[in-house]
Design brief:
The chain has 149 residues and is of the alpha+beta class. The chain has one domain: 2-Layer Sandwich (Alpha-Beta Plaits), CATH 3.30.70.141. It is built from seven helices and four strands; from the N terminus they run βααβααβααβα.
Length: 149
């Protein structure tokens, strides 16, 4: 099964949206295989956002993402990277469809509630940045027989 990395950002944590995010993914049929609640250390922020470090918006992004705790998760399921991106909505909440997480809960691109990996390759990289292999738990949901053909 495919895996993806999701992170409820500080604004989502402060607004009490962790449970809402988990509920949406569980009800869709995906399973969480790892999670952690923490304030991200600078070194890991630099590694996670390595492609943005030289961009002019990075100092603000770094200040925001380290301003409070985040809730980090690894989810598993068929086509989860694409489906999770659809569930999350457009990066800019102004263009996010109603019914998506950002469409329902975010107003500003700089505080858009949640991060989700944009490809399988990115997911694998981000999972490795934030979790050790032994922190990922494999199990079978009791309802998997009703989720997949």
């Amino acid at each position: 099964m495919e895996r993806t990395f999701l992170m409820v950002k500080p604004d989502g944590v402060q607004r009490g949206l962790i449970g809402e995010v988990i509920t949406r993914f569980e009800r869709r049929g995906f399973k969480m295989v790892a999670s952690r609640f923490e304030k991200l250390p600078d070194a890991r922020v630099m590694e996670h956002y390595a492609e943005h470090v030289q961009k002019p918006f990075f100092p603000g992004l770094k200040a925001y993402i380290t301003s409070g705790p985040c809730f980090l998760m690894v989810w598993e399921g068929k086509d989860i990277v694409k489906i999770s991106r659809d569930m999350i909505g457009a990066t800019n909440p102004a263009g996010a469809a109603p019914g998506t997480i950002r469409g329902d809960y975010a107003l500003e691109i700089g505080m858009n509630v949640i991060h989700g990996s944009d490809s399988v390759e990115t997911a694998n990289r981000e999972i490795a940045i934030h979790f050790k292999p032994e922190e990922l738990v494999s199990y079978t949901r009791i309802d998997e027989q009703y989720l997949y053909e």
